[in-house]
């Protein structure tokens, strides 16, 4: 009777621990995904070429001249 008695008395605690663990894992995944998306957004902020300005040979050969 010891095993069955112990199971019922600790069932609620075990379920709460499982739920807390599940929520913690989901929060970690969400934080990781947001960090990954944040780095993508920073890369996309690179200055675009001005469509009104002609592209010269100097710009093509040495784009960091500015």
Break the fold down into its secondary structure elements and pairings:
Elements: H1 2-44, H2 57-61
Write up what this structure looks like.
The protein is mainly alpha-helical and 66 residues long. It is built from 2 helices and no strands. The mean pLDDT is 81.
Short description, anyone?
The chain is 73% helix and 0% strand. By secondary structure, the protein is an all-alpha fold.
Tag the structure with descriptive keywords.
mainly alpha
Mean pLDDT: 81
Q: Tell me what portion of residues adopts beta-strand conformation.
A: under 5%
As residue ranges, the low-confidence spans are none
> How far is the N terminus from the C terminus?
81 Å
- Strand tally is 0
Tally of separate helices: 2
- Global structural class: mainly alpha
Could you tell me the radius of gyration in angstroms? 28 Å
Q: Name the helicity range.
A: over 70%
Main sheet summary: none
Order of SSEs = HH
- State the shape: rod-shaped
């Amino acid at each position: 009777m010891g095993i069955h008695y112990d199971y019922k008395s600790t069932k609620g605690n075990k379920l709460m621990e499982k739920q807390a663990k599940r929520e913690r894992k989901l929060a970690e995944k969400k934080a990781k995904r947001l960090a990954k998306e944040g780095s993508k957004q920073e890369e996309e902020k690179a200055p675009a070429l001005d469509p009104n300005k002609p592209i010269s040979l100097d710009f093509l050969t040495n784009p960091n001249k500015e």
